[in-house]
Amino acid sequence: MSAIITPPKFEVAPTPPGFEGPGFFATTLDKAVGLARKNSLWPLPFATSCCGIEFMATMASHYDFARFGSERLSFSPRQADLLMVMGTIAKKMAPVLRQVYEQMAEPRWVLSVGACASSGGIFDTYSVLQGIDHIIPVDVYVPGCPPRPEQIIDGVLNIQKLVGEESLRRRNSPEYKQLLASYGIE
Ligand code: SF4
Q1: 12 domain-assigned
Q2: Of 22, 71, 93, 118, which is most buried by a Cβ count within 10 Å?
Q3: How many domains does the chain have?
Q4: Residue nearest to atom 6 of ligand 1 (CA)
Q5: Is residue 7 one of the residues assigned to a domain?
Q6: Residue nearest to atom 2 of ligand 1 (CA)
Q7: Does any domain span residue 54?
Q8: What is the pTM of this model?
Q9: What is the dihedral of CA 57, 115, 92, 107, to 10 degrees?
């Protein structure tokens, strides 16, 4: 007897706030661009240790990262807009991570996955960077050692929320320029 396969459920992305009437829908450019951006993030996985293995599980069929429009991983910083840092970052590796971030075009977002990337984790030693936010700005932190795939997905959903609500003017604002300047990034 063959097993009955239930088709996967697809959810339509919710419509952004706007005005609706017979045959028309009007919203702001910010909201329309935010909707497109948040559902088509191209992540660059910067995985250096065990948290990267959790990310591999997140990409695989059981958790299926593709459901969030992010199945296209980019190993080229210039074609990525979400930097996912997963694992211990040694101080020797810090300039490389920083260079990858600088090579990404705006708008770009950063997700720090796990205790090591966020704070150095258990490695409170001379050779380990005590959190990537010492060298690049971070948008969302995912706690855990390692975080489960559900937590990584939760982190990406939080990034999507930020992306969807971000003003198109933010990247040119004095506050954002000041944030980059505080990291010595032009
Ligand atoms: S947070 Fe834990 S699981 Fe993740 S890289 Fe560090 S030691 Fe490994």
Answers
A1: no
A2: 118
A3: 1
A4: 116
A5: no
A6: 145
A7: yes
A8: 0.89
A9: 70
